[in-house]
Amino acid sequence: MAQDDQQARTFLRNAIAKHQDALITTTTALVRIPSPNPPGHTAHVADAAIKLLQSIPHAHVSRHETAPGLVSVVARIPSGRPGKRLVFNGHLDTYPLCEDLHWTVPPTGGVHKDGKIYGRGVCDMKGGIAASITAARMLAEHRDLWRGEIVITLAGDEENMGSLGTKWLLDNVEEAKGDAVICGDVGSARVVRFGEKGFVWIAVEAEGVAAHGAHVHKGVNAVRHLRKALDAVESLEGTVVDGPRDVGEAIDAAAIVSESLSGEVMRGRNVIFACRWVFRRMTS
C-alpha cells in the first residue's frame, strides 16, 4: 500500500506540473474581473468561476445569491466511492481597489511582470481560488486515485466579515461542511498554516463633559476613561486558549511548514474592538 501511495503522489506531482499554464491563465482571468468589497458585488467573478467549474468532469455546480449582486458558488465532485469530504474554501471578493494609491500597474489588469502576476486580489485570494479549481480539475480527471468527494466553496463575502459568505454557506448548504478544509488564502506553497482562530468584537464607550480650552478643569476627558478600558482589553491578547490536546499536537507537528509564530497565534486570543467616546455639553 505504501508503494502504491508513493506512486500516486508521484503521478499527482507530474499532473500538477502539467497544469501550471492553466493555473496562471485562471488567476489572470479572475483578477481581471473586479470584485471589491465594499460594495460587495461578486456576480460577475462568480459567473466566471462557475464556467470554469462546470468544465470539470463530474462537477455539480450551484449558484447562491445571498444579497443583491453578492454571489457564492459551490461545486461538488464525487469520486463514485464512499469516503470523506474534503472542502477547498476561498472567497471571490477582494479589498477595495483604492485607485488613489497610485498603482504602477492597472489593479485589475492581471499584468505579468518579472515572473509574477500583479493586481488587486492576486494573493488574497484569486490565486488561491485558481489553485483550488486547478487541483479539483486534476483530481476529477483521476478519480481512481481517491475516495469520497471534493467540494469547492467560493464565498462572495469575506472582506466584510463573511456573514453572507462562508458562514451563510455553512448554515444553508449541507455539502459546504466537510471532514477537512484547505483554504488557499494569503501564503505560498512553502507556508502551510494549520488551525483556525475565531474573533470577538468588543465595543467600548466612554462618556465625558466638554469644556472650554481655558477651563479644562471643569470638563471630564472621555479619552482618559477610554484609554484605561483599551489597556484592559489589550491585556486579553496574551490569554492562552486551552484547546483539545489532539489539535495542539497537530499544530505543533505543522510547525515545520508554518510561520515561526503561527502556533502561538492559533493558541492565543486576538481582540478587535470598536471604540466610541461621547462628550456631553457642559451646562452652567
From TrEMBL:
UniProt name for this protein: Peptidase M20 dimerisation domain-containing protein
Organism: Uncinocarpus reesii (strain UAMH 1704)
A Pfam family assignment: Peptidase_M20
GO molecular function, a single term: hydrolase activity
Start and end residues of each Peptidase M20 dimerisation domain: 195-238
Coiled coil region boundaries: none
Highest taxon, organism lineage: Eukaryota
Similarity field: Belongs to the peptidase M20A family.
Species classification: Eukaryota, Fungi, Dikarya, Ascomycota, Pezizomycotina
